[in-house]
Amino acid sequence: MGLYDNLTYESGELFGFSQSTLVVLGAIFVLSVIIRMIVSNLSHGFFGAIVRNDSIRQKTVKKGDKALGSVAGYAFGFVMIDLLVGEQAENTNILMPSWAEYIPDVLQFLLVISIVVWAFRLVSLVYDVVKFLDKDDDLDGTEKTLISALESALRFIIVFVGSIFIADALGFELTSLLAGLGISGLAFALAAKDTISNFFGAITVLLDRPFKVGDWVVIGTSEGEVTEINLRTTLVRTSVDTIITIPNANLVNIPVENWGKRRWRRWQSMIHLDINSDPKNVELFCQQTLNLIQNHELTTKEDASWCSINTISAQSIDIEVNLYWNVNSLIAERKAREALIIDLMELAKELNLSFYDGRIRQQR
Q1: What is the CATH number of domain 265-363?
Q2: What are phi and psi of 327, to 5 degrees?
């Protein structure tokens, strides 16, 4: 005796289902909903208890619990319907053949979709897990670049594998489909030429590493900070806060200027002193300015730095300053430059030197 031997659709049928079959299908549906709720609640409590990191717990629990519950519910329904269809092969009075053929495929399709959705929501965990495992809890540009590429690769794998199972659920013959890929491979390669070029462009960027996430770059006519490096495109945020999407294939063929890889930041400026300034004080100003530069904790290449009179005009004495900042960001450079300029103003005041002002010269 089979599990469903007492089910028939010949008496009291409704839409091709007997009353007993409808009861069983209704029970399977209700149990699937209950299992979905139970798994969602259990996963919420389970992951909430074992995961200590707030960001990981939020993405695992709040974003993944319902999707995981849907996976469990559809899986239960698919297994039970598959058992029912198995009994259908022995007892043809359980379901009409049309229903027996399509119901498992529909449930398999919904199951695969729910798994893909759940997996997609978990991809963002890569960043939080790596950051949690990082000792200094501060990811550098290289780590962010690799994380971005890994997330893109995982999304591609999820979509590719999910598409295969969806095709199987829709009734496509996988053997014929895979064999057809070999025949149509050339046509596909020609059609996806740009996509393949972008993919290999991404590999080139990751291997050669001309830049990483966080670097300020100039790519052709585009300039900004690299925010993401994906399998197809690289995203650059400009100084006006817009996003430029650059195909990775373009990065292989055009020059890339990376301001983030500078070993130092050169600063040149011209100081204009009044023409009536005391020559000895001007000379002393140049010497002490050079001492400030060479003894500054944020400067480098002291031998290549200078502060000297560049030229003299009818109205001013022009002093040229050249130095190299040993800082990694524009903000740090601006702060160091501001502090040095204030020191130079105080030094000029101590030496009784006045900066050139065209309005004062005209009054004289």
Answers
A1: 3.30.70.100
A2: -130, 165
